[in-house]
Amino acid sequence: MKLAVFVVAARLTVVTLLLTGVAYPLVTSALAQLLFPRAANGSMVAGATGRVAGSELIAQRFARPSYFWPRPSAAGDNGFDATASSGSNWSVTSKKLHERVAAEIDRLQKANPDADGPPPDDLVTASASGLDPHISPAAARWQVRRVAKARGVAPERVQEVVDGNVEGRELGFLGEPRVDVLVLNIALDQQFGVAAR
Question: Looking at residues 49-70, what average pLDDT do you find?
Answer without folding.
Answer: 91
